[in-house]
Each structure stands twice: as structure tokens, then as C-alpha cells.
Amino acid sequence: MFKFFRRRSATARDQPGVEQSVESASPADLARLRLFASEFAVSGPFVDPDSDEHDLWQAGKLVPWYISHLLDNGRHSGPTVDIACHAEEPTVDLWEAGQAYPTWDQTIALAQLLDVRVRDLTHPDARPRHHPNRPQRRRRDLAILSFEPSAVHAATECRTIL
User: Fold this and answer.
1) Residue 138 counted as domain residue
2) Which of 50, 70, 92, 117 has a Cα-to-Cα distance from 76 of 20 to 30 A?
3) Measured in Å, how far apart are the chain's first and last C-alpha atoms?
4) How far apart are CA 96 and CA 110, in angstroms?
């Protein structure tokens, strides 16, 4: 089977991008991907989040790839996921692409749906990062490790634990 890729501009090729193939990824990008993959684990079933988990969320440490993986493994799809997460279609799809960041209440609802702790959706090395060529929708062959900074800011601005 052949794979056809659109040719990207020189500027997009020079920047570490979301749509970068493994073959063309820099050693640093490959190391980051391996780190995120090797440290992904579910620590246990959902429990009410603590202030440390809130701090992880507030700092933009959620990982779109982890969300996608857990949704896929649980066979969660469609508008019922958005409803369970207190969102409107296609909000969860935008989370998976890193285009939108869930609010704190939505993050808790997502963790409850997936039956994981909020910290299992995060990685300590994750940070919001702008990608000029970020896909509008999640692609199954793509590991998206960060959210857009503007999305994190919009969701976390002036949010506190109630």
C-alpha cells in the first residue's frame, strides 16, 4: 500500500510540527514521543481530583493523545461523549486535536467517563505549544502531545477550585 503526502512548504518543514512523520522527526521530537508513550499509565479508577490535579490542568498539562487513546480503548465515540463531558458536538473532537482545552468541570466529567484519575490525562513535561500546521480534526496516525496556548488560556482564565 502506498501513502501519499502533500508537499509542505519549506518553513513548515523546518519547524517541529504536529504532522511530522517519524522518519523526518528530529531526535529531540522522537525522544519526546517515546517519553510520553513510555510514561503513559492509568493509576487506578476515577476518584475526586485533588488540588495537585487541578494545578496540572491549570498549567496546560493535559495531553490530547492520552485523551484519544483512552476514548478509543473504552470505545467511546460520537455525541454521547460530548454530552457526558458537558460539551456540545464537536468539542471533544477539538480536544483530541489540541484545538480546544476542556474546562475544569469538563476535565472531571471526562475522567469520570473514562474511569481514570485526572492525573492520568496529564504529563509533567506537557506544555501548551502553537503549531501552525495543527490539524483541525484528530488523525488516528498522529500523536498530538500539546494544546494550543490560546485554548488553554481561554479554558483556564480565572478558574479556581470550588
Assistant:
1) no
2) 50
3) 53
4) 12
| Residue 82's CATH number | 1.10.260.40
Range of the domain at 86: 47-127
Residue 17 in domain: no
Instruction: Enumerate residues 6+ apart whose C-beta is below 8 A from 147.
Output: 60, 62, 64, 95, 98, 99, 100, 101, 128, 129
pLDDT in tens, 4-16: 333 333 333 333 4
Is 90 buried (19+), middle (13-18) or exposed (0-12) by CB count in 10 A? middle
Give pLDDT tens digits for 116-160: 999 999 999 999 999 888 887 777 778 899 999 999 999 999 655
pTM: 0.81
Number of domains into which the chain is organized:
1
The verdict on residue 54 lying in a domain is yes
Q: Is residue 40 part of a domain?
A: no
CB 88 within 8 A of CB 82: yes
Contact 117, 46 (CB under 8 A): yes
